[in-house]
């Protein structure tokens, strides 16, 4: 039988195409079901530490270390949250943390975006060499510069103040500068040329053209800056001494003693401290993904 006859017989066979489409649809449905099961199991394991934290925060002290393990709190102690937050003076620590975080994010956006604009849109001698020096600074561990920085800040009289945690952010960070530069290079240069023909300066091009188009990557800077500053423990531990200047990360240490740790209070306070990080990621997730993807398209 020729190939033409074979094709004709397949076309003339009633219901063969419908059965093939039905089988393909069933296979696709099975594949999607298996994929959903695998992703659900993976999501459960990733969420397990958070669930364990929530479970511990609702327990009595005697139940936390009870053997065998108690998986469901009985009774449920919602008062753990109020007692824990009251013990650590949550509102005072929250105010200090918000001041540091907001000023750090502001400094990072201003300084990193200006430096990235220069590397991406302006031409000057030694631009590529300076950018290589900037990238090489990312390979330098932070602990290597910690002692010289501490000596400098002590000489300036900034110990036990917020300045050592805030001022460095106004001098840029290599990671954010690199991220913003990659995004700026993806914006067409025709916009700059048209603006210069109309008489715009470089600063006006930066402020009125590039920044309004850079909301996704600026959202990435805000998210990363917020998470790193909000959860920073080492910086406040080194530079802040008095109880009035402590942050939330240091406040959580109050529940850890030499001989005993109140895990139910620690987990309750940690859950409250974690909520803003989860909230800002959920609300900015679309911009976060878009900024990361678009920053790697060009350059």
Core attributes:
MetI-like fold; mainly alpha; 299 residues; single chain; 2 domains
Descriptive overview:
This protein is mostly helical. It has 2 domains: 3-57; 88-295, Orthogonal Bundle (MetI-like fold), CATH 1.10.3720.10. The chain has helices at residues 3-12, 16-57, 61-64, 79-87, 90-121, 127-137, 146-156, 163-166, 174-185, 190-197, 202-213, 215-230, 234-239, 248-251, 263-283, 285-295. The radius of gyration is 28 Å and the shape is flat. The model has no long low-confidence stretch (mean pLDDT 85).
Structural class: mainly alpha
Q: Beta-strand percentage?
A: under 5%
In the CATH hierarchy, what is the class of the largest domain? Mainly Alpha
Largest sheet report:
none
Q: Distance between termini?
A: 58 Å
Percentage of residues assigned to helices: over 70%
* Total beta-strand segments: 0
Shape: flat
Radius of gyration: 28 Å
Helical stretch count?
Answer: 16
CATH topology of the largest domain: MetI-like fold
Gross CATH architecture of the largest domain: Orthogonal Bundle
How many structural units, i.e. domains?
A: 2
| Uncertain regions spanning at least 5 consecutive residues | none
Quick one: CATH superfamily of the largest domain? Answer: MetI-like
Mean pLDDT: 85
- Can you write the helix and strand succession as a string? HHHHHHHHHHHHHHHH
Topology:
Blueprint lengths: L2 H10 L3 H42 L3 H4 L14 H9 L2 H32 L5 H11 L8 H11 L6 H4 L7 H12 L4 H8 L4 H12 L1 H16 L3 H6 L8 H4 L11 H21 L1 H11 L4
Question: Can you give me a brief rundown of this structure?
Answer:
The protein is an all-alpha fold and 299 residues long. It has helices at 3-12, 16-57, 61-64, 79-87, 90-121, 127-137, 146-156, 163-166, 174-185, 190-197, 202-213, 215-230, 234-239, 248-251, 263-283, 285-295. 71% of the residues lie in helices and 0% in strands.
